[in-house]
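Anyone else keep sequences and structure tokens together like this?

Example one:
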Amino acid sequence: MLFVVFFLVAFFLIVAMTTFFQLLPDWLGQPDFLHILVVFSAYRFGWAAGLVFAFSLGWMLDVVSGLYPGTYPLQSVLVFASIKLLSENSPLKESAYQIPLVGISYFIAQMGFFFFYSMTLPGTLPPWSWNKIVQDTLILLLAAIPSFVLFGYLYDFFNKRKVIHKVISKRNANQFRRDQ
């Protein structure tokens, strides 16, 4: 159930990011909410479900707006795996490193893929801009705080409340038995 709910959230985020967020001014930035969702899934989902979720998010974004096939799924899976490995047995309280790891992982992913693209496609990329990457990372960090609150609420709501259990529990336990 959680997988389906977060898959629908990701679908609506992709639609919003590729249509409505493109209308925002450049100085306001366009935060990558899917990156936030991949990091959130690394904290909450298991390995198998999380890898499938991260791959499917990257694949959907790759189909919608990818210029070089396979880069978004690769980036999503690498971010998920690295965050999952870093946070799996951490002695720190989870709230202490959630938001900083969003920014660090985004910054490293942008640098890594810019380096990868510069090696494979040397003449097609615009020059590296530290100001833009730092600005995008700070905007992402600011967007990550309410996003984590919203995703955490959705996760707790659908994890604690079993929707199917509610439907079944409304009926009587044995509808064929009559009290005498």
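And example two:
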Amino acid sequence: EVNDAKPAWVVAKVHEAVARCGRPASELTVALMGLAFKPNIDDLRESPALHIAEALTRTLPARYIVAEPNVGELPASLHDHRLVDATEAVAKADIVVFLVAHSPFAEVARAIPSNKFVIDVVGLPSAA
């Protein structure tokens, strides 16, 4: 039950972060960091991170950019959004959501400026 409820919890956390930003969601950029089923692979099948990304893009009218270093293009459900590298995602985002603990994200997480809202559901070092 805990695992099944986690995607909804993450979506709620992002909605809360948007509310704390004090600007309309449509003016904010959210970076979704990782879509794979688990770290350092390219398999998106049955991925909770992908389900979270899809739920967010359906329920929150923000701009989205996605960093997923293990795929060359986004799945059809996210084709309206941009696939970028992790550094660009963090630089352009108001809210950074770490959904998968890909190895390349650890370095980026340590360098996030304090003016960004960070939601780290995977426990990256210094990502909050």
